[in-house]
Amino acid sequence: MKQFLFGNSLESVQELFPDRVIQRLLLDEEEIGVLRIGNTFFAFQSSCPHRGASLIQAHINGQGEIICPLHQYRFDLKTGMLKMGFCGDLKVFQTQLTEEGLLVFTQ
């Protein structure tokens, strides 16, 4: 498992990741999206597994789901599990907020 560190303090992480704004990151060769809601962070593949639409412009609903802008497929932000639609689950990544910054872990 590889880990990537973003920011260098709790304050810098909050500046890098504004609340409820999806940010695009490149981890080696893999592009992902990172979203902060309060002090909770979610990291996920940046394209929908159905047709590859970008999830960087996706909508987040009140149930903690990310909604694909192309066909409105819904995925659970915590687990990546498909909640509505007809495709595979969304790949998600573990995150950990530390005093040194935000860690994102890949498989």
Describe the structure.
The chain is mostly beta strands. The chain is built from 1 helix and 10 strands. The strands form 2 sheets. The protein has a 6-stranded antiparallel β-sheet, covered by helices on one side. A hairpin with a 2-residue loop joins strand 9 and strand 10 (101-106). The longest helix has 7 residues, at 10-16. It is globular, with a radius of gyration of 13 Å. It starts with a strand and ends with a strand.
Largest sheet: 6 strands, antiparallel
Unreliable segments of 5+ consecutive residues: none
Query: Helix share of residues?
Result: under 10%
Rg (CA only):
13 Å
Written as H for each helix and E for each strand, in order along the chain, the element string is: EHEEEEEEEEE
**Shape descriptor:** globular
Terminal-residue CA separation:
5 Å
**What structural category characterises the helix and strand content?**
mainly beta
Strand order of the largest sheet: 1-10-9-4-3-2
Give the tally of β-strands: 10
Helix segment count? 1
Q: Which percent band covers the strand fraction?
A: 35-45%
What is the overall pLDDT average? 95
Summarize this entry quickly.
The protein is mostly beta strands. Helices cover 7% and strands 45% of the residues.
